[in-house]
Structures are given as structure tokens and as C-alpha cells.
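Task 17 of the worksheet. Students: predict the tertiary structure of the chain below and write it out as C-alpha cells. Keep your answer in the requested format; marks are given for formatting as well as content.
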Amino acid sequence: MSGTTTAGSGSVRTAGSPWRNWAGNVTSRPVREVSPASAEELAEAVRRAAEDGLRVKTVGTGHSFTSIAATDGVLIRPGLLAGIRRIDREAMTVTVESGTPLKRLNVALAREGLSLTNMGDIMEQTVAGATSTGTHGTGRDSASIAAQIRELELVTASGELLTCSEKENPEVFAAARIGLGALGVVTAITFAVEPVFLLTAREEPMTFDRVTSDFDALHAENEHFEFYWFPHTDNCNTKRNNRSAGPAAPPGRISGWIEDELLSNGIFQLACSLGRAVPPVIPSIAKVSSRALSARTYTDIPYKVFTSPRRVRFLEMEYALPREAAVAALRELKAMIERSPLKVSFPVEVRTAPADDIALSTASGRETAYIAVHLYRGTPHRAYFTAVERIMTAHGGRPHWGKVHTRDAAYLSEAYPRFAEFTALRDRLDPDRLFANDYLRRVLGD
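Model answer:
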């Protein structure tokens, strides 16, 4: 990088090399990069970009597989906007700077005896990046991370700092919790929290037929249920997380390392590399690896149960379906793989969420099941993802905003009853499309 100047304690610099996302499938070359150290500095960077006729995008850790954060204008890096602003124990909320990684937030909350109610299975993302794209875990009653937002602060295209909640600018709050970076730049988020609690995780192998036959019951009987199906096999691994009175009984240091690091990352990395080099061996590897994970039960604080390390890089597509359509779609997916020449090394992940009231949430207005497919980075993905997408869209699927898909505004305006509400708000807050890029033009229209 060259041409660095400082503004306050932040920095502005001419971009000297391309930006790439975590998976390596998206590249962009911004004109300059800005690392603001305060909401005021960020607002000034937005105003200056507008004066220079440059578009603005913010990037967190680059964990989206779409080009949602790509720009040829000004790239805002929020790394200096990190940390907890305040904890309100009376309201049971925490206000956190937008660039704070979820991992840092979770560790800090645990130290204070607090926790989020639900979360996704990785915690590398920044809080703003995770919520803006609709990151979620699995839950019968508790919804996505964005659904836990009680207030947010964002800089609009005019450089105004706007505070939004159910009471203040409620129409913006209704949409901006999952704003796709289209309404402004989020500078701080206030989350609902609760006293830290214990979860007992029960992981158990199960056949595909049993999981799909009992899916409704498994969902109803557990606070958090998910499972992975291993293509080319009839094997699944299920995970049931439920609140526990304790005592805490975390995985043993050695057994936990074997399961979470050696098997799920180290050996899986080798298996994926071999499968990419020699695709015909993938079904045999799948049969072995799907049997390697044994049943286990452990009890720990939430973020240590909900999340796990993900060191093997991949591409992902995920669709949100009406929950009642999930089993039929999954059976169609299995049949499609079995009759095709495709060789799929990654398991298929299935999770659930209750309906929520966020305009562009994938669970907006309906009980939801998520089906996610992955391929090892560098593996040709188009044939598999196209075939999966055909099945998901036939069931009224909504694509995850941060994961690979080909849907456009024409499709999405039919999939989301409140789509026009969101785009009308965008017209009001960003009429000149300061925060636009090619991805937003495709999914929201212009």
C-alpha cells in the first residue's frame, strides 16, 4: 500500500493491491482504503467519497462468498471500530463497535457472565458483516444474530449518523438489521444478551432415512437441532443442543482436539485435497469419514458449543426453504447426486429458524429450514451448485445473501413479501446509490 495519510487516529491510503475474500473467489481493486477510528471519521470518509464521485463499501473479514463487499471505489476497513462501548445490565444489552469480531464479543461477554441467545457455527466475522448478510445458527425458538439486535447506528449516504430502534427511526430499524450494506455503513450495534447459561450438546450418527423421517420430531423436541448428510452415503451426523442445569463437562482436551482439529480440519483437509486431485475416490473417502465421527455428549457455555473452527476453505451455497419443504428438497438433492456424475466431498448441512420480522431476513415471515452445500476451494462448482439451485428455487427458496447464488431482483421481489418496502427505503436513504456495486444491482435492482 502507498500514499497513506492519517485522519484523527484512523488512516486513508491508496489501494496498491487487490482485495480478496476468505474463499478467494471474489477480487476487487478499490481506489483507496479507509480505516476510520470513530463514527465521525467514517462519516467524513463517506462524505469525501461522495464528493469524489466514488462508491463506498465496507468489508469485515471477507467471509461472504458473494461480491457483496466488492468495490472499485472506497473500501472501508472497520478494524479500528472494535470493542464494547457499554453493557447495560438493567436493559440486558451490550453495545459494540461494528468491526468487532464475533469471537472477541463472545469471549468478552462470557467474562462478564453474559451471552447471546443464539449464534452461527463460526465466529470469525465482524458483528456488522455477520448481521448485514443474515448470518444464523439453528434454533426452534431463537432466531438469527440480526434478530437479537435492539438498536443500531449507521452512517447514511449524506454523512448523517442515524440511530435506529423500534422507537427511533423504526422503519429503518425494520430493514437495516439485515441491510446488505445497501442502506448505509453500520458503526455500532446493540444486542440483547442474557445471563450466561450452559448447553448440553449431543452428537450422534444417524441414517439419512431416520433423520428425514423424524425431522419434525427432532426439530420440535430440541432447542437447537442440526445435521450433516455425507453425499454418496446414507450416513448423517446429528447435533442436538439444549439448555442444561449443569455441571459443565466440556470435551476432554485430547478427545476434543482429535474430533474438532485432527478429524474435522486436519484429516478432512487432506481428504479434500486428495478428492480434488482424484475425484473418483471421493465416495470411498465419504464412507470412511462419515463413520469416523462417533457419538459424544458434552456441556459448556454457548459459544463453545455453537461454534467450531473451520480451517478448510470452501465455497458455499445455502437456501432458506419453508420448513415443511426441507425433507422433500433434501431427498431430491440426494437423488440428484446419486444419478449424476458429481463427486461431492463436503457434507450437506441442514438447520432451522423460527419466523422473524426483518424485511430481507431469509426467515422473514415464515418458519424456515436451511440447506447448505459446500465444495472444497478450487473444485469446479458450477454444475453442482446449478443443480442444487434448481431444486431449491422450485421450493420457493431464498438464497443466503452472503453465499453463492444466481438470483436477481425479479426473483427476489417475489420471494420476499416486503422487498418493495426495503427498496423504497433504499431510494430514500441512498438515492444516488453511493453504496451500490454490481452485486446489489443484481439482487436489488437499480
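Marker's comment: The mean pLDDT is 94. The radius of gyration is 22 Å.
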